[in-house]
Write a structure and sequence with these properties.
2 domains, 455 residues, Nucleotidyltransferase, domain 5, alpha/beta, glucokinase activity, five-stranded mixed β-sheet, six-stranded mixed β-sheet, single chain, 19% strand, mannokinase activity, Hexokinase, domain 1, Phosphotransferase
Length: 455
């Protein structure tokens, strides 16, 4: 019993570095706002990590949008094409198909990528008998963009494992239009480019007018929010006068928060190792502490460290456990879904990893490590959301949230609600709303609103 208690105590002691204190969260909130203001300011935008790109989306849905719209959603290892028929406020039909993006295309040329997208788009239109129609399209492109208008977005850099040549510094809308033109067989009007956090905000705003923040916690992490135009130095358009819109959505790109060292005071050896072995070292440091692309690996690194120290599995690991990227983020959700005192999912996961010799105590320790990693992610996201809600200072704010981590982790929502409530000003009420397919439906809604405005 002494050894068990000892491993239990030692692991908890060493996991303390993965637990954010309230004081640290307050400091993170302070630094997030400072960085957001740097991104909004003309003078400091160039060197700011949190770029706060202006989206030029200024109108929220009002329920009067009608018609058929296409949406393209590119944000990870696959992309979706959607056909959305808006009939009235609560009545719409949505058809969609997922297409894979092979690794060779993710790391190939931009021309290959956009030709692949255009081909899938044309096939989809044939399948759904809209091949002959001219349809408006909203393009969700979930990578850092400098937007110069609603239909012009320059790729700042690739993230999430992509590295296509000839795209950084180019207008991705034009690259898509060129690929469609090369085919010459479909007629599409690209009405808007946006990212998935903007889509999430739009999608939730369609049914909830209080939605003013959109957050993604999936493969990557990002947030957008509604800002007053007067606070946006880089907004290229009239800021005052009759009929001038007062607000615009800001795509924060907060995944890059901490790239200047602002998070070093809470980063651990696991974070440093993940960053070192990533495709973009030194970049997207907050994202690497939060998102689904890295959460499983964070847990694996801690489990490996404790195994090698003899505190887990009697010091005997397995080839799979010691292999980078083999402890998937879904394992974290599965392990934490076990009822207290039971280890059914945990044992299944450990068996898949070749760790059949794990004891109940090992399972309890593995679950504790997973809880530390996922709680820290939830608390980091909460710090950013609470900071944004306080900055906006509206009496009531709904936060639209999408992404696989938020959707599938059993405790993420509750952890966030609890932590946000703790740090949001007492007079503000807030709500977290799961976005029903934000990046797809949201893209169609941005296109629909753009069509509505153009009429």
């Amino acid at each position: 019993m002494g050894v068990i208690k000892d491993s239990f105590t030692k692991i908890r002691e060493q996991c303390k570095e993965l637990i954010l204190t309230d004081k640290q969260i307050e400091e993170i909130m302070r630094r997030v706002i400072k960085e957001i203001n740097r991104g909004l300011s003309k003078e400091t935008h160039a060197e700011a990590d949190v770029k706060c790109f202006i989206t030029y989306v200024q109108d929220l849905p009002n329920g009067k949008e009608k018609g058929k719209f296409l949406a393209l959603d590119l944000g990870g290892t696959n992309f979706r094409v959607l056909l959305i028929h808006l009939k009235d406020e609560n009545d719409f039909e949505m058809l969609s198909k997922i297409y894979a993006i092979p690794q060779s295309i993710m790391l190939g040329s931009g021309t290959q990528l956009f030709d692949h997208i255009a081909e899938c788009l044309a096939n989809f239109m044939k399948e759904h008998s809209v091949y002959e129609e001219r349809l408006p399209l909203g393009f969700t492109f979930s990578f850092p963009l400098t937007q110069l208008g609603l239909t012009k977005g320059i790729l700042a850099r690739w993230t999430k494992g992509f590295n296509c040549s000839g795209v950084v510094g180019e207008d991705v809308v034009q690259l898509l239009k060129d690929a469609i033109a090369r085919r010459g067989d479909v007629n599409i009007a690209v009405m808007a480019i946006l990212n998935d956090s903007t889509g999430t905000l739009m999608s939730c705003a369609h049914s909830n007018r209080d939605c003013k923040i959109g957050v993604i916690i999936g493969t990557g992490s990002n947030a957008c929010y509604v800002e007053r135009v007067e606070n946006c130095d880089l907004f290229d358009g009239p800021k005052s006068g009759p009929n001038i819109k007062q607000h615009v959505m800001i795509n924060t790109e907060w995944g890059a928060f901490g790239d200047d060292g602002a998070l070093d005071f809470v980063r651990t050896e696991y974070d440093r190792e993940i960053d070192q072995h990533s495709i973009n070292p030194g970049r997207q440091l907050q994202e690497k502490m939060i998102s689904g692309m890295y959460m499983g690996e964070l847990a694996r690194l801690a489990i490996v460290r404790f195994t090698k120290a003899g505190l887990l599995f009697g010091g005997v690991g397995s080839d799979i456990l010691f292999k980078r990227g083999q402890f998937f983020t879904k394992y974290v959700s599965e392990i934490e879904s076990d009822k207290p005192g039971t280890y059914y999912n945990c044992r299944e996961v450990l068996e898949e990893l070749g760790l059949e010799h794990a004891t109940d105590e090992d399972c309890a320790n593995v679950r504790y490590i997973c809880e530390c990693v996922s709680s820290r992610a939830a608390h980091l996201v909460s710090a950013g959301i609470a900071a944004l809600i306080n900055k906006m200072d509206e009496p009531s704010v709904t936060v639209g949230v999408d992404g696989s981590v938020y959707r599938f982790h059993p405790k993420f929502h509750d952890l966030m609600v609890q932590k946000i409530r703790q740090f949001v000003k007492s007079h503000i009420s807030f709500d977290l709303m799961l976005s029903e397919d934000g990046s797809g439906r949201g893209a169609a809604l941005v296109a629909a609103v753009a069509c509505r405005e153009a009429q």
